[in-house]
């Protein structure tokens, strides 16, 4: 299992990688400690948590795909039909699903979201392996098993035990037999033990250490276990799930946009000029989307979004439309970061 020592083991830089991967996890756990201290774990998630985690991170990071695709004229023209047909086809499928019942629609979207969240964590591991020139098949199996089990086991626990939180709406996950979780648990423990055992072995044998990858696997395992298995709380799930998912993605898109800005149009250059303008743009779109969601569908937080709209049967068309940004983000994320199919991937 000899590894070639990497020239640069960080995806962005030492400071940025530690901030977005380790830092986001530390913030999540600190917020968890604050929630425990102030009693948020046994009550509804506070509005300030919803604004900071859901609105400014979760919803906003969905819109960041625009900088990768729709704001980039060259990229948009390169795969025009893919980028047009995904939201159009997604909306049509969404209307069809919603016509079969709201729960049917939300269940399908929830499972797609879960797949996206799980795959993103594996994606970071794959990028770190590529950066470090790790090509050994055995270490790939160990790494992939660890990061997948770090997410899949907590989900299996969720689907076999009553939790006080949902992904989108109540009962959007099907229940699975209890033995699934019991069978997966020892496999989960073994996979994580094998991963960190392998990392320690390679360090003492060859001096090889892929610290960024180790941080991703460790923080994923801790945050997903604590937020889903160890603590049965909507607040805990929100702060441990959303932050470590959205913050690194912001960094990926921002550094990609910064590398692309010299080859794009004036608007793209302006919006990606610095990270504050970049984030402010995403927050604007996130707020606009949530305003329509809350006025037309959820009827919550009138103090932030204004009065409600009574739409009746129009929800069948509005809900799938509002979900198009999420669905597009989930689907396109499986295409836009594949190195072989993206000539600009090297810019990251």
Report on the structure:
- With 348 residues, the chain is an all-alpha fold.
- The protein is built from 16 helices and no strands.
- The longest helix has 30 residues.
- The radius of gyration is 21 Å and the shape is globular.
- The two termini are 28 Å apart.
Beta content comes to under 5%
Largest sheet: number of strands, sense, barrel closure: none
The class by helix and strand makeup works out as: mainly alpha
Radius of gyration: 21 Å
Shape: globular
Quickly count the helices.
16
SSE string, helices as H and strands as E = HHHHHHHHHHHHHHHH
Helix content: over 70%
User: How many strand units?
Assistant: 0
Average pLDDT reading: 93
Distance between the termini: 28 Å
Unreliable stretches covering 5 or more consecutive residues: 1-6
Can you give keywords for this protein?
mainly alpha, 348 residues
Topology:
Elements: H1 14-38, H2 47-63, H3 65-68, H4 73-78, H5 80-99, H6 102-131, H7 137-160, H8 178-206, H9 211-230, H10 234-241, H11 243-260, H12 266-271, H13 275-298, H14 302-305, H15 315-322, H16 324-332
Helix pairs in contact: 1-9, 1-10, 1-11, 2-11, 2-13, 5-6, 5-15, 5-16, 6-7, 6-9, 6-16, 7-8, 7-9, 9-10, 13-15
């Amino acid at each position: 299992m000899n590894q070639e020592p990497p020239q640069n083991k960080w995806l962005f830089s030492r400071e940025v990688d530690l901030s977005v991967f380790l830092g986001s996890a530390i913030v999540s756990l600190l917020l968890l400690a604050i929630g425990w201290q102030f009693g948020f774990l046994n009550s509804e998630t506070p509005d300030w948590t919803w604004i900071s985690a859901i609105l400014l991170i979760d919803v906003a990071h969905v819109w960041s795909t625009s900088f990768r695709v729709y704001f980039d004229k060259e990229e948009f023209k390169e795969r025009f039909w893919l980028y047009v047909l995904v939201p159009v086809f997604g909306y049509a499928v969404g209307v069809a699903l919603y016509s079969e019942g709201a729960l049917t629609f939300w269940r399908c979207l929830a499972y797609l979201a879960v797949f996206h969240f799980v795959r993103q964590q594996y994606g970071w591991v794959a990028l770190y392996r590529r950066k470090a020139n790790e090509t050994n098949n055995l270490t790939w199996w160990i790494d992939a098993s660890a990061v997948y089990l770090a997410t899949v086991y907590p989900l299996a626990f969720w689907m076999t035990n009553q939790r006080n939180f949902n992904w989108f709406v109540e009962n959007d996950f099907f229940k699975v037999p209890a033995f699934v979780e019991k069978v997966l648990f020892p496999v989960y423990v073994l996979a994580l033990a094998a991963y960190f055992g392998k990392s320690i072995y390679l360090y003492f044998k060859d001096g090889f250490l892929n610290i960024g990858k180790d941080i991703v696997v460790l923080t994923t395992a801790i945050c997903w276990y604590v937020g889903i298995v160890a603590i049965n709380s909507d607040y805990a799930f929100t702060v441990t799930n959303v932050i470590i998912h959205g913050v690194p993605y912001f960094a990926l898109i921002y550094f990609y946009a910064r590398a692309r800005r010299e080859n794009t149009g004036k608007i793209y250059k302006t919006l990606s000029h610095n990270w504050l303008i970049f984030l402010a743009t995403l927050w604007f779109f996130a707020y606009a989307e949530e305003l329509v969601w809350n006025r037309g569908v959820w009827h919550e937080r009138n103090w932030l979004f204004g009065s409600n709209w009574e739409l009746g049967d129009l929800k069948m068309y509005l809900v799938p439309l509002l979900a198009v940004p999420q669905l597009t983000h989930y689907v396109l994320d499986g295409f836009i970061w594949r190195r072989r199919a993206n000539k600009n991937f090297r810019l990251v």
